[in-house]
Amino acid sequence: MPVGEVTITLEDVATLSGLPIDGEAVIVDVPDREWSETCTRLLGHAPNDLSGGVVKLSWLREHFNNLPPNASAEITRQFARAYALSLIGFMLFPDRTGATVHLQYLLLLENWRTAGGYAWGAAVLAYLYREMGRSVLHLTQSSSTGGDLGGWVALLQLWAWERFPLIAPRHTVTDEPITADASPRGARWLPAMTRQHGDQLFSYKLFFDELETIVVSNNISKPE
C-alpha cells in the first residue's frame, strides 16, 4: 500500500478472536492409523464412508446436534469433542471445500486439560497465511481465476474493518461507525449489530490508492 506493507499479526489474532497465542504448538503426529477406530473411541461411532481420516461436517451435525437427556459423562465428552471438531473444521482450520475436517484435530481434543494449553491462535494465523499463499500461487499458474481460499477468512475481514474504518460496517440503527468495545474485540462486529456500506467498489479502490495512514492500535475506542 502507499504507506508500506501491512499484515495481520499475532496480536491482532489474540485481540480479535480471544484465542491463545502462547502455549504448546498445535502439531499432530499422524502416522498410518485406523481412523475409524480412533473416531469410534473418541466420538462413540464413525461414519461408514470414512476415507483418509476425513469426516464431513454434515455428519457431525447430524449425529451430534442434540445431547440426549440424562447423557453419561462419557457421552457428554464425546459430544463436546464433536462440537469442538466442528468449530475447527468450519471456522478455525477450514479446508477449501468448507465441508470436511480431518480427524487429526480430534487427537488434540482427547484430553481437555491439554487441549486448552495449545497456542490455537498462532496455529490459526499460520494456517491462514499458508492458505493465502497457496491461493496466490494457484492464481499465478492460471490464466483466469485463482484457487478457493481456506483458513479463517472472517478473521482477515475483521482485521481489515479494524484497520481501515472506511470499509467497515456501520451501526444498523444509527448508521454511525461502530464504537462499542467488546471482548474479544471482534465480537463488536456481530452481524446483528452491523450492516455493510452501500459504497461501490471503485470508492474502495480510490481509498486504498490514496491511503496515507492506518489504524495501528488495537486499543482504540473509536474508528477514525
TrEMBL record:
Q: Which GO terms describe its biological process?
A: meristem maintenance
Which Pfam families does this one have?
Answer: PMD
* Limits of the Aminotransferase-like plant mobile domain: 1-212
Could you name the domain of life of the organism this protein comes from? Eukaryota
Provide the protein name.
Answer: Aminotransferase-like plant mobile domain-containing protein
Q: What is the lineage of its organism?
A: Eukaryota, Viridiplantae, Streptophyta, Embryophyta, Tracheophyta
